[in-house]
Amino acid sequence: MTFDHSSALFLTGVAALCVVACFHLWISRRDQFFFFGRTVPEGFQTTAEAQAIVSLYRRQTLANLLLAVVFLVFLTIYRAPLHLSVSGVPMLALIIQGILFNFAFARANHASASALEDQHEAAGSHIIAVPLLLNPAAAPPRLSTILLPGVAAICVWLLSMWVAGLSPSAFAAVVNTSQEGFLMGFSIGLLAAALGWLLVMRFARQRTPLARFTTRVVLAGAWGAALVLSALALFVPAHIVLSRTAMRGVGFTFLALGSPRFFTAFSARRVLFQQYRSKMAIISGAGGSITTILQTRPSWFSIVHARDTR
Amino acid sequence: MNRAPILRIDPDSSTPIYRQVVDGLRSLLVEGALQPGDALPTVRELGLELGVHFNTVAEAYRVLAAEGWLDLRRRRGAVVTERAVPQQNPQTEEQFSRSLRQLVAQYRAEGLSIKAIRKEFERLTRELIS
Q1: How far is CA A161 from CA A155, A233, A305, in A?
Q2: What distance in Å separates the CA atoms of residue B21 and residue B40, rounded to the nearest whole number?
Q3: Rg value, chain A, Cα
Q4: Residues A302/A245, Cβ–Cβ less than 8 Å
Q5: Cα(A131)–Cα(B41) distance, integer angstroms
Q6: Which A positions 73-112 lie with beta carbon below 8 A of chain B?
Q7: Closest Cα partner for A117 from A57, A209, A38?
Q8: Residue A145 CB neighbour total at 10 angstroms
């Protein structure tokens, strides 16, 4: 039996669809606060309504997977008449699965809201109780907290320019050397910032645990972006342009560090994980470093000196 | 003694939130759950916990400061102060009587039984005496 390139891609597509479906199923796991994007009171997840919502969502996710696989088979068969590339077929199936997931998640989100509303009505009223002399939630001024990373990055940038005695035109010339990478990073940064800003505005008035978590994530992202900008600011006056492989390595490190944090935040065992947070940070940091070395080993030292390439 | 004063508000109530915060804090102050020297959360912290805008909490703090319960210090939050009990005057007594009657009438209209009202009055009296 021959196993050609398109068969391998088809099987990879099916595997990718299954992995994504597993992720979709995983986010239906019950958590202390988060339930399909809603902040819920303790014990809500065990109610019959909540269990029905989870059950329906899981069935819809499996149906979505089935539909996506059928779509993949259809596209694989009719790929030539539809003028599709081999790699485009699984991508289209993944997009369809993503769209269907959005519908299932939105339905579960609305159903959760209705169930919560009913619960509040049944309880008569929704009393909020706040202990006054215990540790309060940290509440730095939001605007200054959002602006601070950007201001810090700009300060680093200007300072490094001043120290290196670099004129704007010389800086532009260095940027020109790494134009593609710089523009890509800049546009991704802008997109991330816009998304972060939207999320903060969206949750500004909803001070629920979910909103607080989102705000914290956005602010952490803003500081991450500021760090990257600062690194760029230091590299450019020093005429250093990181090779694409090295950048990929850095990206892998970020992923290795960020992914466990993201997953544990939404995990039902979050409290347990928090106890071992420092150990997890060390493990994921070590994992990230190993990945970086493996990724960049052949060209780790191929950092290009822009001055030489000009 | 480990004090744990809890402020409760009902967002669905027709009473404005700032008024609920004022009433809730005043109750805790009168009952002695909050004592002179206690530092209350800052307006931002309490706003975050209650899920209301910080100006709502600031307004409530200002009302209590005007009544002499709180000392408001910039960036240091509100601190409970020693407050001299003002002299009772006949006008206050009359206002209290009228407010109480209105309150009882409101809850009687909502179906609260006389027995329940009496029970609550007795409990309150016991608490005040003790």
Answers
A1: 10, 8, 17
A2: 12
A3: 24
A4: yes
A5: 10
A6: none
A7: A38
A8: 16
Report which of A159, A151, A296 is spatially closest to residue A238, judged by C-alpha positions: A159
Residue keyed to tokens 């939001």: A142
pLDDT per residue of chain A (310 residues) written in tens, 0 to 9: 455 667 788 888 899 999 889 888 887 765 556 678 776 776 778 888 888 999 999 999 999 999 999 999 998 888 888 887 777 888 889 888 988 988 898 888 888 888 887 776 666 556 777 778 765 545 555 566 666 777 777 777 777 777 777 676 766 676 666 655 666 666 666 666 666 666 665 555 555 556 666 666 666 776 777 777 677 666 666 666 666 666 666 666 666 666 666 665 555 444 444 445 555 555 655 665 555 555 444 444 344 444 444 3
Q: Which stretches within A204-301 are classed as H helix?
A: 209-235, 244-265, 270-275, 277-296
Whether chain B has a CB inside 8 Å of the CB on A122: the answer is: no
Q: State the CB neighbour count (10 A cutoff) for residue B22.
A: 19
The ipTM estimated for the assembled molecules is: 0.74
Q: What single-letter amino acid sits at B37?
A: G
The partner residue sitting opposite B49, judged by closest CB among A127, A136, A205, is A136
Burial of B47 (0-12, 13-18, 19+ CB in 10 A): buried
Contacts of B14 in chain A (CB under 8 A): none
Q: Are B33 and B25 in contact (CB under 8 A)?
A: no
DSSP state of B86: P
